[in-house]
Amino acid sequence: MIEIGKTYDLEVIKETEFGVFLDAEDQGEILLPGKYMPDDLAVGDVIEVFLYYDSEDRPIATTQVPKAELGEFAYLQVKDNTPVGAFLDWGLDKDVLVPFAEQHRPMVEGSSYIVYLYLDKQGRITATSKIDKIVCEDNEHNFRAEDKVELIIASSTDLGFKAIVDQSHWGLLYKDEVDQRLSFGQTIHGYIKQVRADGKIDLSLKSGRQIRDAYSHLIHEYLNDHDGFAPVHDKSTPEEISELFGMSKGQFKKAIGGLYKRKVITIEPDGIRLL
Predict the structure, then answer these.
(1) Known Gene3D superfamilies for this protein (predicted)?
(2) Which terminus in the chain has less CB density within 10 A, N or C?
(3) Cα separation of 118 and 129, whole Å?
């Protein structure tokens, strides 16, 4: 089923002086205006297009690439404020509307906001900045630890940064585990660190392997600088390990386990030693 607000590969079925018509299946024939056509496009060719409504609410195709499609979140800038709401730049000639009733707070021209694209009651593509009613808070998801995901940085809290995970759920990046600058609305790749018992998602900007490698390198460097010995091991207290290396006991055990298997260290009764 072809949906307005999505991207498809469609076949050219008719040429006219003002463009070509594409076979949009259940949506019928949809015009791709000449200004969006490559010069060598001909009947029988297949072309990738985005479908939306023009200023007269007619389905139309474009080769312009939107910053978000129907059912997605994006960080968009306000181009104009009007009596019906704010119009945002989403990458197309026609801007997308955020009605006043769908503004989390009054939008300011020139400022950018995270919005979600949906169809209003008249079937028109519309945006809302009231994203809390869209992003899922429940534990109904299939995310697993180590999954690579796309994140949209949405807000900051005392604990860290709230992010939209793969356009669907909330996740949390803890601020003491973030070693780079993050900005509101930024899209970045990350990883599922863990899914808690209540289904809430903890995130990381590094994979588990990258984190283990970083901690292994830190331990190795410490041993090199301290005559090949560190006075902690897998039976040391979490406080002792944290004070020496700034990592949790679980992270420390995984790191030294890898070093031990690679025959880089030995684990002794009073600590670990570089081989």
Answers:
(1) Nucleic acid-binding proteins, Winged helix-like DNA-binding domain superfamily/Winged helix DNA-binding domain
(2) N
(3) 11
Q: Are 257 and 249 in contact (CB under 8 A)?
A: no
Q: Which domains, from first to last, does the chain contain?
A: 7-62 (2.40.50.140), 73-133 (2.40.50.140), 148-206 (2.40.50.140), 209-274 (1.10.10.10)
Q: What is the pTM of this model?
A: 0.78
CA 216 to CA 258: how far, in whole Å? Answer: 8
User: What DSSP designation does 233 have?
Assistant: -
- State the average pLDDT over residues 223-251: 86
Rounded to an integer, what distance in angstroms lies between the CA atom of residue 185 and that of residue 160? Answer: 15
b/e sequence 206-217, b meaning 16+ C-beta within 10 Å:
bbbeebbeebbe
**224 contact partners, CB below 8 Å, separation of at least 6:** 274
Res 241 pLDDT > 90: no
- pLDDT at position 138 over 70: no
Exposure on the CB side of residue 71, measured as CA atoms within 13 A: 7
User: Side chain identity at 143, as an amino acid letter?
Assistant: F
Given a cut of 90, whether residue 246 has pLDDT beyond it is no
